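Hey team,

Filing this mostly as a record. A colleague (T.K.) asked me to run one chain through the structure pipeline before their review meeting, and I want the input and output archived in the tracker in case anyone asks later how it was produced. No errors, nothing strange. Just documentation.

Input sequence:
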Amino acid sequence: MTTVDLPPQLDASVAKAQLAALCRALDALPRGSVCRLNAAGVQRFDSAGLALLLACRRHAQAHGKTLHVVQWPAKLQSLAQVYGVLEWLSTPQDKSVAHAAASAV
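Output structure:
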């Protein structure tokens, strides 16, 4: 399993360049690999950042790899949940935590 740290900024101003960089990192991994994108350091983001993460997931799947986002900052996780994409990007453990948090509200 490989972990790649996401940059502090994931928004429209950097999405294209970050997508290219993340796809290169994914391409360097062998088929069948699992890659975790560590979002702990993400400070600025918008919906383009979520689109970037989804594009990375599609790229990984197209090349026989699995991708999950881990260590979600609370606001980014909340945005992903509002857009309905959290379950596509999270690990099974993260999904159960998010479901429990949503049920508690």
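Quick notes for T.K.: The radius of gyration is 13 Å. The CA atoms of residues 60 and 66 lie 6 Å apart.
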